[in-house]
Amino acid sequence: MQYRTIIRILGLLVALFSVTMIPPAAISLIYKDGGGLPFLMAFILCLITGIAFWYPNREHRRDLRAKEGFLIVVLFWSVLASFAALPFLLLDQPSMSVSDAFFESFSGLTTTGATVIEGIDYLPKSVQFYRQQLQWLGGMGIIVLAVAILPILGVGGMQLYRAETPGPVKDSKMTPRIADTAKHLWYIYLGLTIACTLAYWVAGMGWFDAVCHAFSTIAIGGFSNYDASMGYFDSPAINLVCVVFLWIAALNFALHYAAVSGRTLRNYIADPELKAFFVIQLALVAICFLVLMSHHRFETGLEALDQALFQAVSISTTAGFATSDFANWPVFLPILLIFSSFIGGCAGSTGGGLKVIRVFLLYLQGKREVNRLIHPKAIYSVKLGDRALPERVVEAVWGFFSTYAIVFVVIMLGLIALGMDDLSAFSATAATLNNLGPGLGSVSGTFSEVSDGAKWLLILAMLFGRLEVFSLLVLFSPTFWRS
Q1: Nearest CA to 285 among 263, 305, 267?
Q2: Which of 81, 200, 319, 462 has its Cα between 20 and 30 A from that of 106?
Q3: Element (H, E) at 383
Q4: Consecutive H or E run containing 384
Q5: Which one-letter DSSP state was computed for residue 388?
Q6: Cα(312)–Cα(318) distance, rounded to whole angstroms?
Q7: Contact present, 108 and 136 (Cβ < 8 Å)
Q8: What is the pLDDT of residues 2-23, one digit of tens each?
Q9: What is the pLDDT of residues 427-477, one digit of tens each?
């Protein structure tokens, strides 16, 4: 294991991460909210620590194997999220415990969107901006991880069909092409953020709110500057802008990459995962709309459609924005929406959940087994588009699904053992493992009433969800640590 090389890389990452403390400090000066000092102190601490890690190991520049890659991926999220907690620990408003500070920072950087803060409306502007910035940076990290890193390590949704995808990943080892891919992904991500900001502004948001909410929308994070989330604006136009950009961000960024580099939309039209994604989305919206109309939940059909469209897309893509308290919607809708978050966005997107491609392949595998029962001697294959997939791909999907389910059950039982009621434990596990944010029961608003032990368990769930489960589980294998 190339430990000194890993420490050098982590030192550079922490030192670079220190720069992210400067924009909130600048916001504090602009709005004169008195919250700039904690960010300056966090900047100095991060910079000094990063240099201390990097400088003694600056000459260690060896090629990384997949084993080191896994460790760096896990440390990237856990170390940076830990340093991201520094401003929360140093702030006077809000005053946060260690557990709360780490929960908020991990939730932000993993784009989960769960919060322990009440009275968000009254936070200093610098703190509001910092929370949104964390999600934006986390979203970009997710894209680079999902499209450029995890496939090379042999895990992740892109691995399932990268041989045929129009995306950028074709190499079987870490090469300078990753840096080039990451650069282009940054450009696309930044371009979408700017477009989303302008759209929010045109729809009626102020510039500050437009920038902050664009950060969390493109990252599919769900943080807002207001306790009422998007419901604060009470604007169908803003809701529609949010829905459109959530859909764009929930698509595979390899498709965006291919569209930009090839200057064609052909890959969007041909992608089977995209088609499955929109079938699921439209079905959810239709169900929510029909149920709301039948129960006369809203005064007009347009209002019901607006709410059904927004909440169905927000929850199913794992953003977690809210315009109303969907937990109090009639009949089965709250549970349906929570279950839809297990599907999440497409592979290679900023969304959480199992990913559409895996769920789609599970459906195709189930369909094949039914056909085998009817015609035992026939030979059936699982096809993605026109291409028959190898059996190892189907096995990998089943392996991921079963592991995901086991992790879910273990974490949920752990929460119940720590005193949480059944419904809250179920929805809190779904909200964090799927990187969704809001839950049901006692966690339908904030996680402030959750015990410290439960918060740390939920932080682990956020990491499992963000790291595609196996990237974190592999570190628990004794074989991994053998040279």
Answers
A1: 305
A2: 200
A3: strand 383-384
A4: strand 383-384
A5: E
A6: 10
A7: no
A8: 788 888 888 988 998 999 999 9
A9: 999 999 999 988 999 998 899 999 999 999 999 999 999 888 887 888 888
